[in-house]
């Protein structure tokens, strides 16, 4: 059992274990935030929403980053036949990211902010992330002999790593007065970078899930097929050019709206492909559903379908004008982050952490309960947010608006449902990951 | 199976398109010849240092616990904003801001207000699905 980060024993599994801790932490702060919605003034002085929101967002973003790095390094090693360029660089990457997230969480607790969406910490704390990510890129690139005849997941990982670095640096252009000296200019570039950045970590996650699917089905043909590459390029095209759908209502140049709107509609191709392949997906699901990792892949498929429909609707400016600034946007963000990204990454976690000195079999019932609890409560959570969003949208468009505080009071029933379902969602996730943790720790200490 | 050469060509064409689009957006910012005044710039720094975006939105982007503040200045006026900044309310903490910090934040919100309208009722919808401000 290899868990330590010392030189001889370092393994990418530690990325996954830290990622799971951050997932639970992030969800815990999410619940605190939910309580602050339904109990006005709750923890107002000690831990106001100004702190709980970034604590929640950064923990979840680092869950995604840690799990993605762990997945890519583990699977790259498997793909290249145990040939990772440098174990020392992986260890350094791990240390830099641990320093990063710890200092970020401390900064939030002590009230030090950079005040930007997603990355709400002081800009100086982005340095270890940038250095770490360059190390990740070097380690990845030098582990491959060439890009020739590589499956699609290698292309996805490489573009994911490159574009995250590019967009992360781009999101700090505001430090230059040229970009920062006017609010519309600043938001224009800020949301351009964020739109593409989400696509870049999606590339890492979807690539990992495609590798896992290849491994489970023992069929490598799809990963090399023309169809897989066409869908990959469609995804890359969206990553690059549909970023403007966040800022349709910003007074920016009209072509930003037209380009994003047109490019977003190519997602219909992806939606069509899902519907076309539905029957084959169902057959495969029945065949492999008993496998813990595969169950999460199937769940993610359902969430992709639901969220893609929502995303395509929101990408139409005429619809977006109703949904923008409402909880429908939150439903979309939560649906994709939890329903798609987290389900895919949990599948990867199960695959990477399943081999321990103790069997996971005795926990099967518990893990299945966790799976169903997490997904059913997420569905209620998602619907509650959409319900709140519809009412807020109605309020936003009403010519005779009541006060904001009264409108929020009218939404309280939805907030109560989404907070309770958030608690159940956390319980489901904890039940799902508890056996993985328990076994790893037991094996680690038995070896000691 | 796509030949490697075709994959590289598509990838390079997309990357060139992306870099050109990015460069174009950097050099053609929506608003030219406008700078924050010193007080507005200080107000923006305070806005970020207090992480106001966790609860409030500008142009519909940010947190949803508090209201969108894009046009708060023209809708409610500086005195109304002053009261909130000075004492907070049952949800918003009192940040114990000095009078000059309050004035800086009001100046920043005034500059945001000047930049455009965020009220979705003001947008016109076209039959092709696009919107006009």
Helix and strand layout, with pairings?
The complex is a heterodimer of chains A (448) and B (133).
Chain A: H1 13-38, H2 49-79, H3 87-109, H4 127-143, H5 152-170, H6 177-180, H7 183-217, H8 221-224, H9 226-241, H10 254-264, H11 267-276, H12 278-288, H13 292-314, H14 317-323, H15 327-353, H16 364-397, H17 404-410, H18 412-447
Chain B: H1 4-27, H2 38-49, E1 57-58, E2 61-62, H3 72-76, H4 78-87, H5 99-115, E3 124-125, E4 131-132
Antiparallel strand pairs in B: 1-2, 3-4
Could you explain how this protein is built, in words?
The complex is a heterodimer of chains A (448) and B (133). Chain A has helices at residues 13-38, 49-79, 87-109, 127-143, 152-170, 177-180, 183-217, 221-224, 226-241, 254-264, 267-276, 278-288, 292-314, 317-323, 327-353, 364-397, 404-410, 412-447. Chain A has 448 residues and is mainly α. In chain A, helix 5 packs antiparallel against helix 7 (183-217). Chain B has 133 residues and is mainly α. Chain B is 51% helix and 6% strand. Chain B contains five helices and four strands, in the order H-H-E-E-H-H-H-E-E. Chain B has helices spanning 4-27, 38-49, 72-76, 78-87, 99-115; strands at 57-58, 61-62, 124-125, 131-132. Chain B has a two-stranded antiparallel ribbon. In chain B, strands 3-4 form a two-stranded antiparallel ribbon. Chain B starts with a helix and ends with a strand. In chain B, 32% of the residues are buried. Chains A and B meet through helix 2, helix 5, helix 6, helix 7 and helix 9 of A and helix 1, helix 2, strand 1, strand 2 and helix 5 of B.
Provide the descriptors you would attach to this structure in a database record.
heterodimer, A: 448 residues, mainly alpha, 18 helices, 76% helix, 0% strand, B: 133 residues, two-stranded antiparallel ribbon, 4 strands, 6% strand
């Amino acid at each position: 059992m290899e868990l330590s980060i010392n030189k001889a024993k370092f393994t990418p599994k530690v990325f996954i274990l830290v990622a799971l801790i951050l997932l639970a932490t992030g969800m815990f702060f999410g619940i605190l935030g939910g309580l602050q919605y339904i109990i006005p003034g709750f923890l107002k002085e000690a831990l106001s929403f100004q702190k709980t929101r970034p604590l929640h967002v950064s923990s979840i973003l680092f869950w995604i980053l840690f799990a993605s790095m762990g997945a890519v390094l583990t699977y790259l090693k498997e793909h290249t036949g145990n040939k990772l360029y440098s174990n020392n660089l992986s260890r350094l990457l791990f240390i830099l990211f641990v320093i990063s997230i710890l200092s970020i969480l401390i900064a939030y607790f002590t009230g030090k902010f950079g005040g930007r969406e997603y990355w709400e910490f002081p800009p100086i704390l982005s340095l270890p992330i940038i250095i770490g990510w360059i190390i990740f890129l070097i380690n990845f690139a030098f582990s491959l002999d060439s890009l020739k005849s590589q499956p699609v997941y290698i292309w996805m990982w490489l573009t994911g790593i490159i574009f995250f670095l590019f967009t992360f640096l781009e999101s700090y252009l505001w430090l230059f007065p040229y970009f920062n000296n006017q609010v519309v200019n600043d938001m224009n570039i800020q949301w351009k970078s964020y739109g593409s950045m989400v696509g870049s970590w999606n590339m890492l996650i979807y690539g990992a899930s495609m590798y896992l699917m290849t491994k489970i089905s023992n069929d490598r043909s799809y990963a090399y097929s023309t169809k897989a590459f066409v869908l990959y390029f469609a995804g890359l095209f969206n990553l690059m050019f549909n970023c403007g759908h966040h800022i349709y209502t910003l007074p920016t140049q009209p072509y930003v709206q037209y380009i994003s709107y047109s490019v977003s509609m190519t997602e219909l191709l992806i939606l069509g492909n899902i519907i076309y392949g539905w029957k084959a997906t169902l057959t495969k699901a029945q065949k492999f559903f008993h496998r813990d990792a595969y169950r999460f892949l199937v769940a993610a498929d359902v969430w992709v379908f639901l969220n893609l429909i929502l995303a395509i609707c929101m990408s139409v400016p005429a619809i977006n004008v109703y949904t923008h600034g409402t909880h429908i946007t939150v439903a979309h963000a939560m649906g994709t982050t939890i329903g798609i990204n987290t389900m895919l990454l949990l599948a990867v976690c199960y695959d990477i952490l399943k081999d321990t000195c103790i069997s996971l079999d005795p926990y099967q019932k518990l893990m299945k309960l966790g799976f169903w609890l997490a997904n059913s409560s997420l569905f209620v959570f998602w619907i509650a947010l959409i319900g709140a969003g519809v009412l807020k949208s109605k309020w936003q468009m009403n010519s005779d608006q009541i006060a904001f505080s009264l409108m929020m009071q009218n939404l309280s029933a939805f907030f109560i449902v989404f907070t309770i379902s958030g608690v159940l969602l956390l319980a489901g996730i904890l039940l799902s990951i508890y056996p993985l943790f328990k076994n790893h720790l037991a094996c680690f200490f038995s070896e000691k | 199976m796509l030949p490697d050469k075709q994959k590289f060509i598509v990838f390079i064409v997309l990357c060139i398109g992306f870099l050109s689009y990015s460069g174009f957006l950097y050099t053609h910012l929506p608003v030219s010849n406008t700078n924050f005044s010193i007080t507005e710039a200080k107000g923006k720094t305070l806005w970020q240092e207090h992480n106001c975006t966790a609860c409030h939105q500008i142009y519909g982007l940010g947190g949803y616990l508090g209201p969108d503040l894009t046009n708060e200045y023209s809708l409610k006026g500086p005195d109304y904003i002053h009261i909130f900044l000075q004492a907070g309310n049952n949800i918003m903490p009192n940040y114990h801001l000095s009078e000059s910090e309050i004035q800086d934040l009001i100046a920043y919100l005034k500059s945001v207000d000047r930049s455009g309208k965020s009220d979705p009722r003001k947008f016109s919808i076209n039959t092709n699905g696009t919107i006009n401000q």
